[in-house]
Design brief:
Layout lengths: L2 H25 L3 H21 L9
Helix pairs in contact: 1-2
């Protein structure tokens, strides 16, 4: 697998989750409601994980 493919794998997966969650929320009922929560919740959780404040590392 090339570096370019590895670099774009996570953004593509998050984009597919987001798109499928949005479509599911708009057009389906019952199981689609649950999938829309999952499909839209995972990308938000990933963004929150990477946006959290971190403690600075001590100099080595």
């Amino acid at each position: 697998m090339s570096d370019r493919q590895r670099m774009w794998r996570a953004p593509v997966v998050l984009g597919v989750l987001t798109a499928s969650g949005l479509v599911s929320a708009l057009v389906s009922d019952s199981w689609g409601d649950a999938w829309s929560w999952v499909g839209l919740g995972i990308p938000v959780a990933v963004m929150a994980w990477y946006a959290r404040p971190r403690k600075p590392r001590p100099p080595a």
